[in-house]
Amino acid sequence: MSAALQLDGVSVVLGSREVLRDVSFAVESGEVIGLLGRNGAGKTTLLRAVTRSLGHRRGEISLFGAAVGSLSRRALARCVAVVPQDLHVPFPFTVAELVLMGRAPHQPLVGFESPDDVERTRAALARLGIEHLADRSSFELSGGERQLVLVARALVQAPRLLLLDEPTAFLDLSHRTLVLRIVRELAAAGCAALIVSHDLTLAARACDRLLLLHDGEIQAAGHPRDVLDAPMLERVFGLDAQVVEGPDGAPLVVPRIGG
Amino acid sequence: MFSGLLRALAVCLGLMQASPSFAADGPATARRVVSLNPSLSQILLELDAREVLVGVDALSKRLRPELAELPSVGGLFDPSLEAVVALEPDLVVLVPSVEQRDFRGRLDALGVRTVGFRNIQFEEVLGNIANLGALVGRTPDAARRIAAIRATRAAVEGAVATRERVRCVVVLQRDPVFLAGGESFLDEMLTSAGCDNLARELGEGYPRAALEWLVGTAPDAILDMSLDAAGDGAIDYWERWPTLPAVANRRVLRLDAELVTMPGPALDRALRSLARALQGEAIDAAIDAKLAEAAK
Amino acid sequence: MKRLTRTRFVATVASLVLIAIASSLIGLLTGPSALSPGDVVGALLDPAASGAAGDIVLRIRLPRVLLALLVGASLATSGVVFQALLHNPLADPYVLGISGGAALAGIAMLSLGAAVGFGADAVPPAAFAGSALATFALYAVAGAGGRVSPTSLLLTGVVFNAFASAAIVFLASIAGLAEGARIFLWLIGNLSAAAFGSAWLVASFLGIGFAVALVLARSLNLLALGDETAEHLGVATERHKRWLLGATALMVGAAVSVAGLVGFVGLIIPHLLRLVIGADHRLLVPSAALAGGTFLVVCDTVARTALGGRELPVGAITAIVGGPLFLWLLRSHQHRVFTP
Question: Which of B137, B96, B136 is nearest to B117 (CA)?
Fold first, then answer.
């Protein structure tokens, strides 16, 4: 069986800058991969190349064995869901409407939502603990609430590959944990996930493997324990930190702040 | 291009402000005159004062071939200050419309003598003939012209007195419909020619009328003086409303807008052609009879 | 959990249809001439009615009410589509320069056409051709590189409109006064040239444009969230945007060519409706068409009757009503209508 997502020698040029250089890796179904790197390393660009939001210059990207360029938008949306960094809605859609939109790739062009669509939406809102927001206008949401709405929308999309771009940046710790727990549940059910994150400690716990992206190239890839070490953090993030083993056995990154 | 409405509205613009107009107590007879309005140019021509004109507006030139040789000083609404001054006039005559009022102020500031002439009312036009005559030393010609106009007006009024009055409107533009309203020499001439100008109820000047008002008011005659009235456009347009009495009775009349809407020296001819259009050719003989009667 | 159901859709559309019918009846019953309701109904029931009542009801008021309905519907629907396509609640049907093209071509025909033997009848076709040309230019410039981005659309539109208004000012300044008065009426928007011929034309273009917007209404929901989000949710954005732009160009071109630039309908109706029925385009598109038509019928009835036999351009009424209404919306419902 082919990988959920496979990149072979992918390069992306934006303007005159080569943002990704010869990137190759694979994400298997049921696997959660963390994509780490400092700002501007090319993480979001990589996600956008996968969803064909920008053309890549060289290399092959395939989803479940099919070249990404050969899929229609609708076919792509039926297997890949994206949780973007934030949601900018210039119109007063309600939370329920926004989440229901996740069903769009499964619906005919014209018509109303099926009972199944509604049931899935209700379940997703409940899973994220935001049923009480269902009728609220998107204008009245906090940054964290918006992120939960975006996760719920991705859930009802019923994806086989989930791409999350810093999905927890605005969330408090308990909600971060909740989102990552949901991602793990999806993985257990066979969904693949690629998470861009700046929270190294949480990523180390949620992900099966980590990819460290630096200046458009993959610097390290592998089990969190093997990837997160002090010299690598120094090199990739320019970060002065200690890495210790946490009580759960996963690495714990402790940055040095004071003298 | 220059329809009746153009001139009509030019007149209208003069109506909408109240600057004092005439002050003929200046120095002696003018020798170099610039006219900025066709009605004034035509009065000067009629008074045989062609030789005092050194420059006119573009529209005056277009309307009168006698003026073709003269330099143009620009349009009715955008005369050129420099062109006027370059002609070294000792008098500039104009109608103080909104645009020309500012222009007049600038000429005054340069020390050029200007005289403004309002030409909304019938009597104002006659006054203009008298005053322009005085300014260029043609007082007797002016008096004769005024007397002729007054005599014709009285004769026309006398000739139509026994006839039934015609309910009519004067259309200056169709689509949208602009009509000649009340309070103008045109309205006064219509009254003299035995006609009730129905558009008077819409106000003075040149009101835009609703088509429904026109159909509902059902005038007996429509005097169409719009741009393309000369062609069949006017007839075709009005044929769309066959129930209008004016259309049913074939009384959509086309008139020479240039003659009838010009507040100039030929108001007697304008009156006659209005009367003829409204009352039929036979009215001519009646008018001549009245004129002869009055001359005795 | 509130959402758009078939019941809510049918109920909303049905009530808006009733309101549109009621306002049309009021429009047919009112006018500067004193016709009794009995006369009006009599004329309506007898299509062959002659006499002043027949003329006034069937040949003056009826085409005018129909045209107001159609033009209002076209403008409000295009407003909804443009706001979604550009992700910008301040967009209106005139923002992309399609109207500028129509106005420029129409006014060029108004002021110069007479010289080469064209009459007033040539103005609407010229205006429509202008809107089509402007749309092609818009595609060519903003769509260079395969993608039509909202920003480049907006920029192209703004520049094109600026160019068109400069050219219009030029034409107006060399035109005679008679043409000047017409140009003025055209720029402010005016329905007095209503006749059945133009109503059928606008109806067919509105029909096509409206059908496209209705079929793609779910895509509009997604496009309103941004092109990339729409792609993530399975919308073939470039293809749908081209269809929608073409559809709105038809509607705006037809509306502007017969009525000139009637303002505010396309801006305010979408916002008022979102306040009442929410942002879902599947309901918003048909509701905007109905409410936009109703609004323009009411405004035109005022324009026809406020001054007795004298007539006001309807654009003056929509602006007088729409401007303050929009400011009120901004002030009192800012957080429900616009982004905080």
Answer: B96
Phi, psi of A175 (to 5 degrees): -75, -35
pTM of the model: 0.86
pLDDT digits (tens, 9 = 90+) for C198-255: 788 889 999 999 999 999 999 999 999 999 999 999 999 999 999 999 999 999 999 9
What ipTM was predicted for this assembly? 0.93
Q: Do C215 and A121 touch (CB under 8 A)?
A: no
CB pairs under 8 A between B and C: 96
- Chain A residues whose CB is inside 8 A of the C216 CB are 109
Residues of chain A with pLDDT under 50: none
d(CA A196, CA A27) in angstroms, rounded, equals 14
Looking at residue B270, the DSSP 8-state letter turns out to be H
- Give the C-alpha separation, B255 to B277, whole Å: 8
Within 13 Å of residue C91, how many CA atoms lie on the same side as its CB?
Answer: 30
DSSP collapsed to 3 states, B201-245:
HHCECCCEECHHHHHHHCCCEEEECCCCCCCCHHHHHHHCCCCCH
The number of CA neighbours under 13 Å toward the Cβ of B7 is: 28
How far away is chain A from the Cα of C224, in angstroms, using its nearest Cα? Answer: 7
Which of chain C's residues have a Cβ under 8 Å away from the Cβ of A84? 228-229, 232
CB contact under 8 A, A97 and C280: yes
Distance in Å, alpha carbon of C87 to nearest chain A alpha carbon: 6
- What is the tens place of the pLDDT at every residue in B23-78? 444 556 899 999 999 999 999 999 999 999 999 998 899 889 999 999 999 887 77
- Report how many Cβ contacts below 8 Å link chain A to chain C: 120
Q: Pinpoint the alpha helices (H) of B110-171.
A: 122-135, 139-160
**Which amino acid, residue C164?**
A
Q: What percent of chain C has pLDDT over 70?
A: 96
